[in-house]
Amino acid sequence: MQLKVLLVAMRGSRRTYLAGLAALAVATIFLFLGPQILRITLDSVLANEPPRLPEPLLGYWSNLGGRTFFLHRLWLPAAALAATAILQGLFTCVQGRATARSSEAAVERLRTAMYNHIQRLPYLDMDRFSTGDLIQRCTSDIDTIRRFISLEAPEIVRTLAMLSIAVPMMLSMDPALTVLGLALVPVLFGFSLLFFLRVQRAFERMDESEARMSTMLQESITGIRVVRAFGRQRYEEDRFSQHNEEFRHLTFGVINNMALYWSVSSWMSMLQVGLLLVGGSILVLQGSVSIGVLTAFLTIQTHLLFPVRMLGRVLANMGQMSVALGRLQEVLRVPIEQQLDEGQRPEVRGGLSLQNVEFSYPDGSQVLHGINCEIHPGERIGILGPTGSGKSTLVHLLARLFEYSGGSIRIDGVELNTIAKRHLRSQVAVVLQEPFLFARTIRENLRLARAGARDEEIIEAARTACFHEVVNGFSQGYDTMVGERGVTLSGGQKQRLALARTLLRDTPVLILDDAMSAVDTETEAEIRQALESRRDRLTTIMVSHRITTLAATDRILVMDDGRIVDSGRHEELINRPGLYQRVWQLQHQFALQEEAAG
Ligand SMILES: Nc1ncnc2c1ncn2[C@@H]1O[C@H](COP(=O)(O)OP(=O)(O)OP(=O)(O)O)[C@@H](O)[C@H]1O
Ligand SMILES: [Mg+2]
């Protein structure tokens, strides 16, 4: 099941990958020709034993003139050794390139698939994963997979190829010596497998600790101002040293374990070599084994021991790889948002009709209860309500950033959830309560709303949002970088940039979710006026905590605890007891006091 993700990602590069593995097998064959050349040279050229060769080769041997021929041309075995080494190198190189090329391509595809899927995840499903977690899935988890397919899987194939060539080769030369030569190999393999399975957990703990440390680092660097403002540097430093020390401690433990592993397994390898050498020498002295055969065995063994030592590690890492694949799949399994272009595209004038609208968050908390209201095209609506009363939630429903779970919302008579999302969002524009600016130029941030916007249009939108003058104050104008490595905009400037960005879409419905809270009242009035003249019939919905803003609208909806509890014009609402009146009194009295104080 998990492998399916991998197989899909490898589509298109599977052949290259398999060709790489085949080249690896060929390279292994050439590697093991070396010991045979040594054996024949020692036994049948230097000594005088009949060569043990397969039939066609034996024919060549006698046709050339047998032993005497080679005895006068000792450079020939040397050249043959060199040739096998070169061919082995050549095929290893081919293998390296092929597996690298195909696995990098697969990994690139995997990364793209993840990125595109994340881009299309439904708004609310994003909450299931934290940002750091998603980043880790797209980077280090993918890297684990990359390591496996480009390095570890070929390593498994190499070891298997080696064993399947070496063991029959050894058996054909001398069964008794084969037993001696492989006696400790299963022990070595078992030890390596058990060891790496055991330290696997330590590796994971080290990774987790590193992730905690980098999350903390990222958070405190991003929040450095808050840290300074509260004078919490010392506290943060202490917290960081804790993480840092924990990481050092875990890393040290792993390194210690590894040191132990390498010494014990080296010792076991030496024991194995010693066993073959001593046992083999005894057999040579007894005359049952030739020097050439013993030399061939010793050479084969050198090639074999290291891969066997590594095999345990590679197999243990397979666990890591399947965890990583599982983590990718967890994201890829979340169904993506319905196609943005699926649905009808009605002409929108800006009339909204909400009937019994209900909404619950995935955690089960119902936030909106039976919302009813009619908004006419061109009407200016204000929304007031205490914190948490559901204003932003309602706003998200109107642009279908969330889907309402009950009731009906119609725009000019068309049910909202039958309209193509992209189309709807080109008709209903929202300035979100927490606008996000990218660390790009002002122009690029604005063009996010409409990639093809002309400069005049950009300036027009910026003028309406009272942002053009701000931009003119920067030496690089619209090409000024904002955010990190650029100018730092004030809270109100950011909000005006976000507003200008939304205005670029020039939609019949405009929703401002408390989007001018940081803009001073005078500038805000100016913006409202500019908006008015911008489009003859613009339906606006302004969520605000400011009475001066709300007073300028045609009708105000008062929300409390997910319900509309009152609605009417400013003059009506201040004259009847209720939430609106209380807020008005508070703000009004405050304004009067200010005036009196001069
Ligand atoms: N993603 C979410 N999952 C679960 N509950 C949420 C989620 N987002 C908001 N809520 C809850 O929904 C309720 C309404 O939140 P909402 O953001 O709509 O309030 P609001 O009226 O816009 O408040 P404010 O004036 O502070 O902006 C709150 O109780 C909030 O805790
Ligand atoms: Mg809100």
TrEMBL record:
Against InterPro entries, the record matches this protein to: AAA+_ATPase, ABC1_TM_dom, ABC1_TM_sf, ABC_transporter-like_ATP-bd, ABC_transporter-like_CS, P-loop_NTPase, Type_1_exporter
**What Gene3D superfamilies does its record include?**
ABC transporter type 1, transmembrane domain, P-loop containing nucleotide triphosphate hydrolases
> What range(s) does the ABC transporter domain occupy?
352-586
**Localisation per UniProt entry:** Cell membrane
Q: Does the keyword Transmembrane helix apply?
A: yes
Alphabetical keyword list: ATP-binding, Cell membrane, Membrane, Nucleotide-binding, Transmembrane, Transmembrane helix, Transport
Q: Which domain of life is it from?
A: Bacteria
Indicate the principal place this protein occupies in or around the cell.
membrane
**Ranges that cross the membrane:** 16-38, 74-94, 156-173, 179-197
Presence of keyword ATP-binding: yes
Pfam families, alphabetized: ABC_membrane, ABC_tran
GO MF term set: ABC-type oligopeptide transporter activity; ATP binding; ATP hydrolysis activity
PANTHER family per UniProt: ATP-BINDING CASSETTE SUB-FAMILY B MEMBER 10, MITOCHONDRIAL (PTHR43394:SF1), ATP-DEPENDENT PERMEASE MDL1, MITOCHONDRIAL (PTHR43394)
Q: What name has this protein been given in UniProt?
A: ABC-type multidrug transport system, ATPase and permease component
Taxonomic lineage: Bacteria, Pseudomonadati, Spirochaetota, Spirochaetia, Spirochaetales
